[in-house]
Amino acid sequence: MADPPAAAPAFWHAGFLYRSDAEYADTVAGFLREGLTRGEPVFAAVPPAKVSLLTDALGADARHAQFADMTQLGRNPAWIIPRVLAFAERHAGRHVRYVGEPVWDTRSAAELREATRHEALINLAFADADADILCPYDTVRLAPAVIADARRTHPLLLPAGGRGIARGHAAPHQIPSSCSSPLPAPPHDAMIHTYRTDLARVRALVSEHARKAGLSDTRAGDLVLAVSEAAANTLRHTRSHGSLSIWHDEDEVVCEIRDEGTITDPLAGRRRPVPGAPGGHGLWLVHQVCDLVEVRSDDSGTTIRMHMAITPPQAAG
Amino acid sequence: MDLLTTSVATVESASEPCTVVELAGEADVTNSDALREVLEAEVAKQPRMLIIDLSGLRFMDSSALHVILRANRVMDRQGGVLALAAPREPVAKMLRLTAADQLIPVYASVSEATAE
Known about the structure:
The structure holds 2 protein chains of 2 kinds.
Chain A: E1 11-18, H1 21-37, E2 42-46, H2 48-58, E3 66-69, H3 70-73, H4 80-90, E4 96-100, H5 109-125, E5 131-138, H6 144-153, E6 156-158, E7 166-167, E8 191-195, H7 199-213, H8 217-237, E9 242-248, E10 252-259, H9 282-289, E11 292-298, E12 301-309
Parallel strand pairs in A: 1-5, 1-6, 2-3, 2-4, 4-5
Antiparallel strand pairs in A: 6-7, 8-9, 9-10, 10-12, 11-12
Helix pairs in contact in A: 1-2, 5-6, 7-8, 8-9
Chain B: E1 4-11, E2 18-27, H1 32-43, E3 49-60, H2 62-78, E4 81-85, H3 89-97, E5 106-107, H4 110-115
Parallel strand pairs in B: 2-3, 3-4, 4-5
Antiparallel strand pairs in B: 1-2
Helix pairs in contact in B: 1-2
């Protein structure tokens, strides 16, 4: 292995726009093999079919790399950054390599917004990390708008074949408008409840609605915890009322908390709090127990939209 | 009825008497100051072991957790032990997700905690 330059830790975040399994196997496995050859810790979180593709391409070398099914690890995209940070921390002081494929074609519109947001937040979360991060995008199956966002969230773009590199359009710390502009309005028949201090009433409403919509006791309890934590922030950080909206369709129950508070840290809830830390657990719990969470916050206030699927999610194929 | 009720008792343990604080109802940001007062008063008596009986607690949020974590730090400094007993599943899950269960021993029941 060549001596690493003594310069500041190099954070390298590239999108890889692929057209076929062959390109994928060649370039992504090549990226992983390069890391293994250099003795770097290597981790790939990709959909299960891609795990097979990579392990086949790597052959015996695959056992030195760590793989995870991204449709589980990253079903909620907010779960990914803490897992990858944990991987980097386990190997602190060493250069690590990570392949993350958080975007696939069967994701819902809300999931795609969050997966894109996650990609933009990678630039922030790993800005000081000594890591190479490669994110494959399926240009055949994904919509052009999704690919356009991939160009916006990645500082670098790796062409098929892995030779040569182009600059992406990512501006540091910028989040594409597709996942930072206001959320689609709730349906007209959403239930709306205004609260100030009666969080028990907020919890009772969520619990009742969630069970009626078909959530199991456990998952209804998860949603109650998430909404209660979001509503507790209204009490902790504002002097005004908050509003709870609840609605559901055949697929999911959605609860939304809106208040006049402002969340300034875009990574809030995406870093695992230090055990015993005297704060920072609220948004962490919100992200951990929900299937998907969308946060929008500016000077005019904060919206936290929490999604729970009525059928407990299974890993995609 | 109060959202959160607390009661304090002393029970015999394997070695010496220990304090049991029983919580019932829902513990959240709206009553975490009251919870803090109860726990601080008991911690100040420097018991060897302080057990928080969670069996009657339907709900706990991160504000209540922070009060418990703070009490745990003081107990630690005093050379005592704080333990949690009999959390229901939603509370147990919250303790796992925050990794509080790695800092504070969690027992299935008060009697298991006092057997230590």
